[in-house]
Write a structure and sequence with these properties.
It comes from Kitasatospora saccharophila. The protein is mainly β and 133 residues long. It contains 2 helices and 5 strands, in the order βββββαα.
């Protein structure tokens, strides 16, 4: 889950690689996967599709016990909003979802009004609170 990814786990990210245009996506799911290398497209074994991934710099060290690297991957499931706008996530978003526009190497990303799928609540409007888009 996004909330479980800490900034110190992302310090060796050098680049984010996107496999499709993220400007049309309200959110992407992100997770840290154990992968055999620092760079290159990772194997993808989930339902749905791989949208992007992080590449690590040369200073990233493999785990002593497994020999793997923890890298972020970005993905979507078949029932996510981009494929089913009126479905389960017509409003709200999965716990591990973030707005792809808030992502950068070394940055966790965050939820926004866009990623949550709706306009601000009336209470937010009354208080003048807006989330970044």
């Amino acid at each position: 889950m996004s909330s479980l990814i800490s900034d110190d786990e992302l310090v060796h990210e050098a680049e984010l690689v996107w496999l499709e245009d993220i400007s049309a996506l309200d959110y992407v799911r992100q997770s840290l996967d154990r992968l055999p290398n620092r760079r290159g497209r990772p194997a993808y074994h989930r339902a749905g599709r791989l949208v992007g991934y992080a590449q690590l710099g040369r200073e990233a060290k493999a785990s002593r016990s497994s020999g793997t690297f923890r890298r972020r991957v970005f993905w979507l499931l078949p029932h996510d909003r981009d494929a089913r706008p009126e479905g389960l996530y017509a409003t709200g978003a999965p716990a591990e979802a973030v707005d792809p526009g808030t992502l950068a190497p070394g940055t966790r990303g965050r939820k926004t009004e866009r990623s949550e799928g709706g306009p601000p609540s009336s209470a937010m409007r009354e208080l003048g609170i807006t989330l970044p888009l």
